[in-house]
């Protein structure tokens, strides 16, 4: 019998990579997709039938983290062995514009999933997608023991979800693990996060169809890793004998300015001719520097990052150049590029 996983946020960057990872391991994967007025399954359309045996083992269901009845019904029907709660309003800047919605989906959504699992009385393990944003203004390097100091409605919601998972572990003896993941990127990254915004702009500027790139704070330091590697850490966190919380990071910090410079360098352009600062992209409260210490993940999960900053920039710029080329040639465009 194949193991059964339920993923919220299946249609997002991490959800799509995690679905592929679990299918490769022989899991049956159930994903939550939410209703939207236009297609939102582009990232996982390519994996709806698993290539190994031609048999569909990825199933998508309409539900929503704001809708407890549908979550309960789904968990009761599917009876998953593992639940990965990746769904969220995940944009930090946007969370200042829609704070109550962010708290509801990103914070209370975790509680709804946990309570639905508890009410269904299924013997399952629960992964909560926690975030380095919870550390906020705590100075680097940040590790599991570092006190949280959230700096946005998004980060506050993630702190609530983190403690709710810990509380379910302590109160109800549920197997709940938090992955405290630092920024991780890929060609599937949403286009309004800074790395993808930059790599997409570099490809368009090189092709002559964009002339400027408007950005906010170039001094922020982030620890950027490669998303396909980070989903393995999620899975590993649920394969341990006892549940715990893990920082997942590269341990390297770089400024947004360094990312810009490296991305323009890749195509032989001088970034200073194209980048302008637009204060609209500044945040009411900024997180200045996030650099993770992943010692616990390395020791206990045997996990370590393989793709570091320079390779990540290259992968993303090259993917966006290829995507643009495919679009211009009218070729079938796949998210994986
Ligand atoms: P993402 O690409 O923004 O994906 C978010 C997913 O959540 C999407 O599938 C989205 O659906 C879904 N979602 C949004 N609102 C929902 C709702 N009301 N009900 C159900 N699903 C909903 O995020 P990601 O980068 O893959 O990140 C995955 C998780 O890890 C998120 O919880 C994020 O906060 C957290 N995280 C991310 C990072 C990072 O650097 N990427 C770091 C730490 C933690 P649509 O496709 O329909 O929008
Ligand atoms: O910003 C600066 C911005 O939006 C990174 C999410 O996945 O990782 C992500 O959150 C930095 C910030 O990611 C622009 O001010 C400058 O300092 O790419 P970002 P984030 O806020 O770090 C964490 C770990 C998560 O959990 C989140 O879900 O870049 N920045 N100029 C800009 N950022 C954006 N988006 N756009 C700009 O124009």
Automatic annotation (TrEMBL):
One Gene Ontology biological process: 'de novo' GDP-L-fucose biosynthetic process
Xref: CDD domains: GDP_MD_SDR_e
A family per Pfam: GDP_Man_Dehyd
Keywords assigned: Lyase, NADP
NCBIfam families: gmd
Protein family (similarity comment): Belongs to the NAD(P)-dependent epimerase/dehydratase family. GDP-mannose 4,6-dehydratase subfamily.
Name of this protein: GDP-mannose 4,6-dehydratase
Record organism: Micromonospora wenchangensis
